[in-house]
Amino acid sequence: MEDQKQKVTAECCYHCGDDLPAMQYHVDDKAFCCAGCKGVYQILAENNLCNYYTYNVSPGKRYQSESRLEYLDETKIVNQLIDYRGRDASIVTFYIPAIHCTSCIWLLEHLYKINPAIFSSRIDFIRKQVTISFKHGEISLRNVVETLVQIGYEPLISLQDVVKAHQKNTNRGLVLKIAVAGFLMGNVMLFSFPEYFGLSGVEKQFQYLFGWLNLAFAIPATVYCGRDYFVSALNSLKHKHINLDTPLALIIAVLFIRTAIEIIFETGPGFADTLTGLVFLLLMGKWLKLRTYHHISFDRDYRSYFPIAITTLIEGKEQAVPIDEIKVGDRLWIRNGELVPADAILMKGDAWMDMSFVTGESEPVHQVLGEIVYAGGRQTAEALELEVIKPVSQSYLTGLWNQEHYKAGKKKTNFNDSIARYFSLGVFIIAFSATLYWLFQGDSQKAWSAFTAVIIVACPCVLALSTPFTLSAILSVFDRKGFYVKNTDAVEQLAKCDTIVFDKTGTLTSTEQAGISFNGVLTYTEKVALGSLFRNSSHPLSRHILKTLRVDEYHSVHGYNEVIGKGLHGMVCGVPVYAGSLSILPIPVQQVSASGVHIVIDREYKGSFSIQQDWRADLPQLIFGLQNHFELQVLSGDTNKDENTLRSIFPDQAKISFGQRPEQKLTAISNLQKQGKQVMMLGDGLNDAGALKQSDFGIALTDHINNFTPGCDAILKGSALNYLPNFIQLSKDGLKIIKMSFAIAIVYNCIGIYYAVQGTLYPLVAAILMPLSTITIICFTTFATRIFARRNNLV
């Protein structure tokens, strides 16, 4: 590698690889084409980052920036570019066109070595984006951009949606490659006509001319049109695994080498027609896949992940509004434990925001009136009044749910990951075996034909398409029924679950229609004080009690605190108010039932609210439909007053536990997993957050207000709970469809390979059959998914 490097640097710029001009720049025995490239090298050398050059030969882009960055000193512009701004740190995402290789990834993820104030940088290679976290007290946004410019990675900064613009450019580039490949294929076919129909004596004199023309057309087809397959294959090999593009890159290379050898040594016409036709058909298949993904909304928008509503204040009255109808200027009422769905300004209340979903830091951040509260923050104190300054679709939270670098936990393998390696390996073994067989038989022509035909006819496109198409169609079915699953991998995980654990309150029961009575006496002033306290809580029971109080005025609450699973307290007009279990009360209370919500105002016990549990409709039928296929458990934080009812609903072998604290629920889930169980957890997303995240598939159940839980895998409307067995069965059917499509592909490949290994299947015919098989599989998965969805009563 070093010898190759020295050879290259003697002829071209050490940094960017361009030809060296007459006037050269030299540093450390290295030659550079301009002062910019030399400057970048010096910066890297000063910061011990020259490993950048070991990953690729001449990896840099030519430094040619003349950018003026004074506009980045304007606060208004900076605020529009920043994704998130905390007390000490900010996060910004840039689109960088110069990202093109593994060296780029390595260097951009080591920015902290150039400036320690940039403490984190993550690369999205496909989108050519870098997400940078920096300490804004030590380095400004302009200095961050200048650092990127100095090392040759100038970001494309625009207040337009640069990501969407880049995606359009990507599609435009693909269309251009298709056009070029089609032009090349048409001309190669034209020059190959004499060969197809037999050469007469007159035509034979043009044979070599046409061969060299075909070779000339094959070069751009390989180097330009097929470049992405080589880049993808090389990147996969660098990471020591074989992806689905590797056999495609191999066959393109083999066809080109064969064509060059036959034409240069005048041993045959070559395979330029097969090569150009194959590249054209592969690019058309890629374009079809992108169009289909767009059509089925494979990357679903934010509305799929904020399914219910948010509370707005309209003329001082609380009103639930669908999340996608929030507009700039709307006033939001964010209770304790609720997630802020859009960037907004704090207008009223004491904000202590848990930003762990955004930054990973769990310690609450205090914010004062007039400050921006970013989407993704969870309020941990009293309720807040916020004014929206950005639509939900433009907030930082929108892109967080599905981004890989915000996910934690154990790695879950899917069907594609487990089978792709063996599929590619099997194709290689068959191809090389057939080649060696015919070479030993002394028929090199059939050996090459067999090798090329096997790899083409056994193209892994079917495997690459069947899984995402099937599972994406299932996601759309789930969405329409009120079951919002995170991604396609989660659907596979849902199908593997064998144990279901239920929370009770808010899951098996609904407080929306529960009967509530108060055992005691409250004055109107005391009701107002209680209403002011409960108004800050997002717990369904708190909201239901608030409705029964029927008060029209509220006071500010100071020192509000909500203890998960126990209750809440705060100061209302200087008077301490407590509501919850006996353990949270400031005074001892004797001879009262432990159940219910107990009230203490100004250190005087006032009584308790009794809740008549309203079990969810058709709950016995739901449990009956699950008990024969799953191990069932109940983990409840309540007392055992409903034990007899639950025993009559659940099977005898079901384990039912009461008085479970959040940490005990998490431990119970962990113990089941240690026994080899695949655990699904259903909770209301409040005191079940830890257990939901620990489970293999966590479902947050919600009725009206959006109790969004980042640690869960799905959100389920309470009204759709009875469809749970149907959802699980459809996910299992989805895996069946994938395996069936794979079986169809295997049958097709076996038939094709049977003729291919004999050398009787012409490579171009194999290239035509390949996309036909892909279309067949797409149609099969689409129709099969609809049939199974109808069979499961989900359409």
Mean pLDDT: 77
For the biggest β-sheet, the strand order reads: 16-28-27-26-17-24-25
The largest β sheet comes out as: 7 strands, mixed
Low-confidence parts, pLDDT < 50 over ≥5 residues? 1-9, 159-169, 293-307, 396-411
* Structural class category: alpha+beta
- Measured as a percent range, the helix fraction is 40-55%
- End-to-end CA span: 59 Å
Q: Which term fits the overall shape?
A: globular
Oligomeric state: single chain
Rounded to an integer, what's the Rg over CA atoms?
32 Å
Write a structural description:
The chain is of the alpha+beta class. Strands 16-28-27-26-17-24-25 form a seven-stranded mixed sheet, with helices on both faces. Strands 18-23-22-21-20-19 form a six-stranded antiparallel sheet, with helices on one face. α12 runs antiparallel to α16 (444-457) and α15 (415-440) runs antiparallel to α16 (444-457). The chain has 27 helices and 28 strands. A hairpin with a 2-residue loop joins β7 (309-314) and β8 (317-322). It is 46% helix and 17% strand. It is globular and about 110 Å long. Residues 1-9, 159-169, 293-307 and 396-411 have low confidence and may be disordered.
Descriptive terms for the model:
alpha+beta; 795 residues; 7-stranded mixed sheet; globular; 17% strand; single chain; 6-stranded antiparallel sheet; 46% helix; disordered N terminus
Give the topology.
Layout: H1 2-11, E1 25-27, E2 30-32, H2 35-46, H3 52-55, H4 75-81, E3 82-85, E4 89-95, H5 102-108, H6 111-114, E5 118-124, E6 129-135, H7 141-150, H8 162-197, H9 201-204, H10 207-225, H11 227-238, H12 246-264, H13 272-295, E7 309-314, E8 317-322, E9 331-334, E10 344-348, E11 351-354, H14 356-359, E12 365-367, E13 372-373, E14 378-379, E15 384-388, H15 415-440, H16 444-457, H17 461-480, E16 483-485, H18 488-496, E17 499-502, H19 504-508, E18 515-520, H20 524-534, H21 540-549, E19 557-563, E20 567-572, E21 575-580, E22 597-601, E23 604-612, H22 619-627, E24 631-635, H23 643-649, E25 655-657, H24 662-674, E26 679-683, H25 689-694, E27 697-702, E28 714-717, H26 724-756, H27 763-791
Parallel strand pairs: 17-24, 17-26, 24-25, 26-27, 27-28
Antiparallel strand pairs: 1-2, 3-4, 4-6, 5-6, 7-8, 9-15, 10-13, 10-15, 11-12, 11-14, 16-28, 18-23, 19-20, 20-21, 21-22, 22-23
